[in-house]
Structure of 3-deoxy-D-arabinoheptulosonate-7-phosphate synthase:
Amino acid sequence: MVIHLKHSVELAKAQELASKIGATHFFDGKKHVIVTSSKVKEVPELLADYVEDHFVMETDIQLASRDYRSEKRGIKSLGIGPGKTAIIAGPCSVESYEQLDTVAQFLIKSGVKLLRGGCFKPRTSPYTFQGLGLEGLELLAQMREKYGLKIVTEVKDSSHIADVIAHADVVQIGAKAMYDHSILRACGQSNKPVLLKRGFGTTLQEFVQAAEFILSQGNSEVMLCERGIRTFENKTRFTLDLTGVAFLKHHTNLPVIVDPSHAIGYRYGVPDLTRAAMAMGVEGLLLETHPKPEQALSDAAQQLSLEEFEKLHQSLHPVATAVGQQII
Amino acid sequence: MVIHLKHSVELAKAQELASKIGATHFFDGKKHVIVTSSKVKEVPELLADYVEDHFVMETDIQLASRDYRSEKRGIKSLGIGPGKTAIIAGPCSVESYEQLDTVAQFLIKSGVKLLRGGCFKPRTSPYTFQGLGLEGLELLAQMREKYGLKIVTEVKDSSHIADVIAHADVVQIGAKAMYDHSILRACGQSNKPVLLKRGFGTTLQEFVQAAEFILSQGNSEVMLCERGIRTFENKTRFTLDLTGVAFLKHHTNLPVIVDPSHAIGYRYGVPDLTRAAMAMGVEGLLLETHPKPEQALSDAAQQLSLEEFEKLHQSLHPVATAVGQQII
Amino acid sequence: MVIHLKHSVELAKAQELASKIGATHFFDGKKHVIVTSSKVKEVPELLADYVEDHFVMETDIQLASRDYRSEKRGIKSLGIGPGKTAIIAGPCSVESYEQLDTVAQFLIKSGVKLLRGGCFKPRTSPYTFQGLGLEGLELLAQMREKYGLKIVTEVKDSSHIADVIAHADVVQIGAKAMYDHSILRACGQSNKPVLLKRGFGTTLQEFVQAAEFILSQGNSEVMLCERGIRTFENKTRFTLDLTGVAFLKHHTNLPVIVDPSHAIGYRYGVPDLTRAAMAMGVEGLLLETHPKPEQALSDAAQQLSLEEFEKLHQSLHPVATAVGQQII
Amino acid sequence: MVIHLKHSVELAKAQELASKIGATHFFDGKKHVIVTSSKVKEVPELLADYVEDHFVMETDIQLASRDYRSEKRGIKSLGIGPGKTAIIAGPCSVESYEQLDTVAQFLIKSGVKLLRGGCFKPRTSPYTFQGLGLEGLELLAQMREKYGLKIVTEVKDSSHIADVIAHADVVQIGAKAMYDHSILRACGQSNKPVLLKRGFGTTLQEFVQAAEFILSQGNSEVMLCERGIRTFENKTRFTLDLTGVAFLKHHTNLPVIVDPSHAIGYRYGVPDLTRAAMAMGVEGLLLETHPKPEQALSDAAQQLSLEEFEKLHQSLHPVATAVGQQII
């Protein structure tokens, strides 16, 4: 149950009430909000005097549910919201100043405003490139200063969460890290927008519940990113779950981002899948592009060259128009 | 290996050669074609004198492969081919003359030329509606006569394959029947175009190999229909594998059809997924529509009302234009 | 709902009643049984005067449910039933008299009473060995005469169902054929025991519902065979679903058979998985064994040599004893 | 490639060499070991003078591979190794002193030496019980002191990894945390045995590669725990992948543990699945038992009562004997 407390209730009281009933609490800018398990179907007696409004929910998808808040949430600092589709582009891994600068210049010319690049790589093998770490974060920050790009970069585990929050404009939580409560909590308590990737073995229910960890700490700017799930099919690296995207659009109030590059894992299919996601009117598209994909230190098979990226980018505009979206 | 025999080789000789090496044989209108297992990497000695041309293949995706024939195949009688997207619409099950006539009239007004409707329903339970059978086929044939619509209907098992071939303009092989060699062989030996649905537990490799059963009997008009695969996600009925569609477009020479209705299983997501498939430039879209979906005898949750269908249909045109396709 | 009619009700009347309410009907040896959709929760008025007893069911798992009949069904002619585990062994494909005779002699010495061998192979590629067909059935029948073995062989599609029913002692319905209503119905109307394999993309619910097609035609001798499902894991060919076996044991009244050979697809794991299934107290084990596995025309990687089979067979006895089962 | 350096090489030199070629390094008690990517197929020139021995590997399963070290690794402090099967039992969550003490007393009487209990619960919902945290670790430590039990407890994210390493005898890395490099590295640098759970969406390849993160930091005591993977089947919570267990036994040198409770998610199937795993001769079994399962704060549906546990425990001995294992 989501409970709105009366405006007169003060912080200490709100915290005390939440704590007494074992619920989460946050201040949403206007009022104190308490969230209990969805199994609670009646207002706890203890709170009776303080409740302004309450919402009984079916499952633990609560703050993200259209039943709680029917209008779609946006990301203010990025201009993301209904009717807009943001392009987020850049290399899989930050590799060097030169590499990043080439990409950044290119994106600026293309009108792209969000630069992505990984510094802490969640590689499955200990014997491959693990990312530039903090050095990479600093290179990204230089691009922001030089070009005014907004920076999207991934946190892999909680040991560097503070660094990522400090350097990024959007904190990306990777597919393998999305169950990590320390990361989710830290993001919930920060004021940075969060791009939450769905784990490849994660149900839609669990995915949105991970977003609830962030929302219920007071950070309302969470984007849900579909990036392919693991199925029996192995001709492609993963299976992009656009059926799931339809579900998320219909049932949740959170912006939805699609990452076709990681889903298919092969360059050839990225343009078609990107246009497919565009035609669904999603709020953002995450695309990997690299000056020399064949020399990339990670994900060489799936990154687009800058020329391929630009060709795709151009082709998105008429599709956007066809479905009433504006590319930003 | 795909082997083209010299034009001088006669039918009896071609058959004899194929039989001796345990391979399949067919006449493609111009020449005799023999197909061996893809494990055969050199022309069998026995055939040496008769071979015009040969194609060594990596896997048993052979006649359907771009490596054998790079240009896309089309379906002549339906006008299906590159640059065109055919709309195939109608109710899940044929239920009555009135139901079918209402839909048919509506489709004619909308400019749709292909009417679908199931007569033999592959229901999972023996205790639910199993379809009108032959009576349904005759109702469909009446619609063809009355309105000039082309009829697409499904064969469920080999006991009624002859009836379906006789009545339909396009024989649909259902997801649960696609491994049935008797059906595949009968379709391969007929001259009716075939719409082959992917099984929900079927890999892309197996899917195309089922098409090879048809192609290698001499019928070159096979469409591959993606209709959702079974994954761990159960908020949606199936997961529409558009990543797989990208693979099929890239690697095979067969037209690709998408069926979003069965994939998601819920009306709400059908329009978005249909537009997504449209944006990928597929050759056809299969849509369930029913005059009164809530009263449908099967798939009540996913069929669009005629009004919903028409609204979706209208919205497809700008998307088609955006990606250079023409809706037929 | 499962309805037992009063003993006084005659065949014609029972059929008439079933037909009027659109339900299935069969005679179970003692009484007429009518089965409606499980959505029917009250006895239809029309039947009120004729009902002896009725069972309201939750899902369309009805005749197979422990809620209908709590004691486990057995297979009389084979001695299969609670406390017994039957070994069913033989080559993947029947290849020749010599091959089959070698295996048959070996099995007789080992005390195995059930010989399996495929004649109609549901291969995924049209360019590989498709089985000996009718000739194979006759070879199997010779083994029955010569050695007194019971014959288990697979039907692949409905074109040869009559032949298989005529020749086999147990009709095996393959994983790819298990949705085929013509096959299910023909088996339901025969008096031969049926070994029904689970499709690799088939849910437990659908699997048992396929058995209901057979049971509701009057054949009560159906065995459920788990043979591996398709998952994201591809180091092994399939994933043997013993969790599903636990479900089937607990919720249904049908004997359960396990086929570890097809599940893993590699010889090395067959013994361990067979012992695992044995320890669960299943009613049967299906094992592939071939005199020269490396020369087998199908499934060469997973068949055990006769020596490997015998070593495994011996090792099963102490496990059987440990869990109170007797190997037959 | 795994490289053994000559005994004469000193620590600083070994580290320098590893660093120069971007490889991992550790001392295995006798010699320095360097591991490069498996793509390296020839000894790097720089190392030529220092190499004693080297092992070219097919994939990044290297230290865990039977091709590197054919004999099975054991866990000295626990007596775990070939021929032994350790029982690890206890409640899902540590809830109170009383609860834990009841279980501990019971286990001691049953001869069980390893007590498990979760303190940091990786719940999918923020609105449910999240565990007792550090307080729970201290309760577990009290049980060790009082009863001499060894303590197995789970780390959920890297924020409390130091606490878990300090308190536990075996550090369990949960299914949702197994890609977390900070945790894997911390465990690799500790001297505590590690029980690594497979993620429910994790391939066998990735699973063993996670173990490589630990092994390549110098900790050789890693157990692989199969606990069910996510498949399309939803009648059971997960699908226990015993086919995967067969693969791990055959291809790796690490002890394998099976957790049937989490796999099926329902009490009824736990005994059968446990006996199945026992019959495969695994090195350990992880079982959830609770004094009052129906009142448990987590996993209420799957935990065994103490009586059910003991009945199961007794039934394991004859199965163990049948396959030549000794229960410890």
Observations:
- Chain B has two domains: 2-55, 76-327.
- The mean pLDDT of chain B is 95.
- Residues 261 and 270 of chain B are 6 Å apart (CA to CA).
- Chain B is about 35% helix and 15% strand.
